[in-house]
Amino acid sequence: YQRRVHGEFGVGTSKEGKNVLVLEISNESEMSGDGLREYEELDAERQILPVLSCVLNQIMMRNDKLAFNTSQVTIFHALRPPTIGVNKYLERILKYAYCSKECFILALIYIDRLIQRNPNFLITSLNIHRLLITSIMMAAKFFDDTYCNNAYYAKVGGVPCAEMNSLELEFLFLINFSLHVTPEVFARYQNELIMHSYNAARPCFCEPNPDEALEANPEAAEGSSTVPQPQ
Question: Whole-model pTM?
Fold first, then answer.
């Protein structure tokens, strides 16, 4: 992969011309944590989610311009893009999923692993929402002391429970069940997010669909406006 090193997350280009997620490390981010606030002190909704959505939107929007190959369709693909934007979708998960803030960083790591292990897998507007709810759910179940069941996460994400179960299993196979994240790897992703949020001169305006109505796919008739309490 060709990488543009700016000391932040970014979008790289593979030899085949595909846009991929890359973690770009600068000398500053490799320093010990001097000058960096602890992640627990950050406002996830104000600082972490916008960075995540910006990076994912850049990849998604560029990959959407590539010729669509039906052979690359997976169970993560919807028939058409959901009407809710990535940032609003993440805000919804943050509000209703009752997961720790660390789960959003772990989800990014899992998605990065999926891309690295499956070079032909492209993040697009058709699959990003299912990738997010699935990776965050797995992070919560692996990392958090308490978590909800799949039926609840399915309700939050706007997909049927049976589909949520299938998405989880498929994601696990795509990353070879590699859910463990070392403290060093977590710290790298965490610090890059922090650095990016501090260095951002202006907010990201790459959100393609800012509508707040949730519509994860046409078949998902289960309404998501009423979110149940965790069991």
Answer: 0.74
